[in-house]
Queue: 3 jobs
Job 1
Amino acid sequence: MERSISLVFLSFLLFFNGFFFFQVHASETIPRPNGKVRFKLIHRHSPELGEDPGTTLGPPSSPRERIKQLVHSDSARLHTISQRLAPRRKNFEVKVLGKSNLVELPMRSAADIGAGQYFVSFRVGSPPKKFIMITDTGSSLTWLKCKYECNNCSRDRAMLHERIFQAKKSPTFKPIPCSSDICKVDLSECFSLARCAMPTAPCAYDYRYADGTRVVGIFGNDTVKVRLRGGQKIKVTDVMVGCSETIRGNFHDIDGVLGLGFNQHSFAVKVARKFGHKFSYCLVDHLSPSSLVNFLVFGEVAASPVPKMQYTELILGILNPYYAVNVSGISINGKMLDIPSNAWDINGDGGVIMDSGSSLTYLVKPVFDQVIAAFQAPLSRFKKLDLNLGPDHCFSDAEFEQSLMPKLAIHFADGAKLEPPLKSYVIDAEDGVKCLGFASTFWPGTSVIGNIMQQNHLWQFDLLNSKLGFAPSSCTFD
């Protein structure tokens, strides 16, 4: 029996280091209760981005440039994370009420500004218009380049052939009043402004990123189109979007940000309510051919393709808008490293977050030092290279054999264990060069499990039950 649905935008972008593009198309009905929405994620270095009119994204000029770009955007993202978590662990409640269906979205990775590595093609408004958006699990605001009241602000962008959302031409776009509690209270974490010239004036925001990029605009709700797994389209109504009229900084090659962080008004949280309170993503090797697709799914992913799913606690509401996990240790070849427990204490000075927007995995210094020490013996077989690429430890891969490298595992407090493939922590930097996929970050502070470490796994975020499921996956099942 078909049922009508409505969805509200949710922020899912982790940070501006790794970008995915997101594509949504929609009609009005879901054909069955177990439906799901699937988005295709596009990596920042995907040739597909360079082919899209209005962007200059795509493959870098060389393998060395590729790793430099990833690390550069990681640095901006880490800075943003540390700034946001400085006044740490501000608790808030996100309700996860709703009905169970399933929405799937394809994902891929793209360019950097400290926001994320993956992009989606996103359709919003009436009639729907296509925009290329960064997905960010570390951001709660969904916004796009837009014109509402400003008469001259979009002229230069139009001359550059940038896509601009004409909000007043969309009859379904409804500004949020500045006098509302949503503006004054709920959206304060999305940098809503206190000014309110009259009660009916739109709620304004001034959103600033760590690299100096700044977007100023107004909040509103509009309709989005998304495609169900079987190809049928549905309308997603009352999606919260930011209409950004003033943009200063590095958003030259993209149209906006799709926020997927944990926040009451983020795209991820609100859409997940409609589809079983769950969303998942699966990332293939970032060096894989473009025929292999990353994806983002809202709804239940069938258990049959992933029989070895493990579950661990998903810690919500402490390191908002990030998704935190309870790590208890790291082992090398089955031996636990001597890492102080306070490095993992999310209620103290430590903790770990999952970040699809960061490429490398960043470990606070007490953890990083132990991990690197465990690799010293096997790395001594190879010539160390000082290439100023970003990763701290790079070496010649002459006579390299996988069997010479130790096996790493990340252990969670409730017994789950992530055993990534070797290529997720010994990465190809360029021809003849490999690097450890770890970098050191400040202590006290938060460690970050980046998207290269997450590759070749399905990750399921269960917001209702505060569980994170994961399992090895080729990301090829429907």
Job 2
Amino acid sequence: MTSSFLTNRQRDELNASILQYIAASGLKASHEALRYELGIQGGGFDDDVSNYDGLLEKKWTSVVRLQKKIMDLESQVASLQTELDILPSSSKKVADPANWLPRTCRYTLLGHRQPVTSIAFHPVFSVLASGSEDTMIKIWDWELGDLERTLKGHTKGVLDLDFGGRPGEELLVSCSSDLTIKLWDSNDEYKNIRTLKGHDHTVSSVKFFPDGDRIVSGSRDKTLRIWAVKTGYCLRTVVGHSDWIKAVVPSLDGELLLSVGADHTARVADVSTGDCRLTVTAHDHVIECCAVAPAASYTYIAALTESKRTPPLSSGFEYFATGSRDRTLKIWDSRGNLILTLEGHDNWVRSVAFHPGGKFLISIADDKTIRCWDLTQGGRCIRTIENAHDHFLSALKWAPSIIGNVPSRISGTKMNGNGHANGGSNISDGRLIRCVVATASVHLDIKVWTS
């Protein structure tokens, strides 16, 4: 017998369908000959294949319909390609990912019952997680706008989320007002694999270290804690803040921790010792958010300083930004020198993010706006999206850049519809910028902004 692409079950179903068709056509001799060739002995034919009545005809007509549909689609593609070829060259330009800024809301995701507090993008797949005061975490497909699942485990509001872990072993971490941190396995239906306890008050912020083996948390108990992902043990407790820690983020190399809080200060601590490297009284009110500048921004920020000397791109911590209830954003260097103050928001600044291409800073606030600041123009606000949500904005995240050689079926690098860079890269380590931003609101919704 010649090799077949069918499985044993598929082959048996095909044989039974053919036998049924021959019997229904009254071809008794052919029917018996085929039964003999197939080694089917004894028993009545009607009992053997009664479940396959008409199956062969249905399959055949389905194939014909699919062939016609394929031909129609190929004709449409050819027609559209002809139209595209005759367009002026200026009409075919794709926006440079390094200059892309959010403008259009692609999806509004609804499902939470109380204010949404946090969002996080999966590092590889088109997955977005959201946390809410309703104690639940929801997992969405941001390319389709579909809700995939709801995670329950926390007993009070979820305040922060982050994806991390080693490649292929990605985890989701969450923290809550219930004083706990939970790890969820994204490769095993988001099973809660570990719960970390140790903080004495609300856990406000949680982030993975770049190595994926550790996480850091910040709490209303005024401490930072560093945890081992594999064991759940607390490796170190870092003290220094005199009030509620609102946000914490590791440096790009994982050697330092930047934290901000209700004590109006930004602190930089050494991960290995817990010692304070820098304390800056950064604002006149509670500092809600902070972000470490990526290496791609060093050139643009350095141009705003007196020395104008660009730091080495290999450095993991040169500049950072803070956002406060005093309605301002500030950009600092690693020695605590204020470089720039950005004014324009009319209410508390809630979240800030650097553009992966390095030229811009993006912020959201309780004034319901998204603001885009151009570092090449002295920090001028070049875009304001008014009424981005119907109520206060609570969270902002830029989709992480992807490794350039990830297969397109995983990374989505095919572009034109999924927000990814069209083959080009503006990041020195060979990553591709994804033109996707997500924002969340106390109005219970999440919005996905793409090109």
Job 3
Amino acid sequence: MVFTGLIIDARLDVNILRRTTAELVKAWPVLGGKLYRKDRPWALSTGSIVDFESREGHQDLAYWTQRGIPPSAPRPTIMDKLSPQELDDTFMFNVPAKTTNVFLVRATMLRDATMLCFGLSHHLADGTASYDVIRAYCDLLAGRPIAALLLPPDSQGKRLSDRVTPAKTSDPSVRRIGYAEHLANFTIGLWPVLLLLVSVAWNLLLRRLGLQEDLEERYVYLPAEWVGAVRKRALETLSMLPADPQPRWDSQPTKNNIINAWFLKTIYSTVARSNAPVDFYGPLSYRPVVAPPPPGHYWIHNSIGLLREKLTVAQIQQESVATLAGRLRLATLRYTTPSSIQAYLRVCEDHAGRRVLPNIQGRGTTPMVMVTPWTGFDFSALDFSAASSAPSRPAQVVFVNALVREMREGVWPSAFTLKSVQGGGYWLRGWNTPSGWRNLDRLGDIDVL
């Protein structure tokens, strides 16, 4: 399940929320269905299940804002008083560990605010689809029409790879990722998967025995001014590097690339220097290159591909954030060309009935890192005023808590990156070692990066 928790700065009417949930399920019946096994892979049914629950909470908005929403700091700051586990427990009450419902809504009514949690099956939806569903929910609240739902092409036996729109122009210096390279990014088959699971179990055992550092989950706030300053310095650095016949980085890394490169450095800043391999995996939406549904229509879909960048511990430690961010930017460009996306989709279609996992090069303590970017979602634009108990008062989102439940175990270092709805900064919800978190203050110094 993909869970999106929202703290809204007004007390909302539970009856209106429940009624709107039922309206949305009626309009988009796939949300009222269930997830079930039909041999393999999983299958989805449509229905009319309205999985909505509410409860009263004794806290108020100040209880959460005093824990750092929004914080004011000149550099990245760990919000020690803001516990991801406490937030999850507050948002996700009465949610079965293995729920088969496709969609659920939970509302916790605080004294002067509301905590809303939307859950969607990850088999059906990615982060973009989750955001679109919440936006449709807000449209229904406000009495606005929503798009008509269509089944996505792949649920009707059609190949998404045939719907990829060719590029009008292309940069010859950006190498495409072909079928064989995509396939090599994944582990397929019983024996490789078994070896991966044994490696995971071994690392978890070492942590339980105290023989290696455990991973701890934290919320970190990165001020917009700091991220902007690091990116400005990175652009200046990359512009002065000599051009290479075969580019090794892109000269225009995004803010998201900067945050990802910085997070990699926090993880490996205290690890012994070595040439041990490290895989960076990042989800990428392929919606922009797939022909969309007709105007006025929408399909809920998990349209996610995976980017893989092969690095080493020494490389992460030695290279600047600018160079690392440039590498990640170039990898993004390569993986998001229409031909690269088409090759990725064909790999998925050819292996749809098999278990496919990331192909991790190393077998050390942290050989893989994954960062999920939600920085493109404008949660501040969501308006819940139509459900406010005081109709004259606007009801806006003041904090977002993102979670994919299956990723909570902290097997590998991973993170969600989100744009703050207040102040223009960024939130990072991530797993790191205690020593990595303790080194955060040093890595907040722009001159060190």
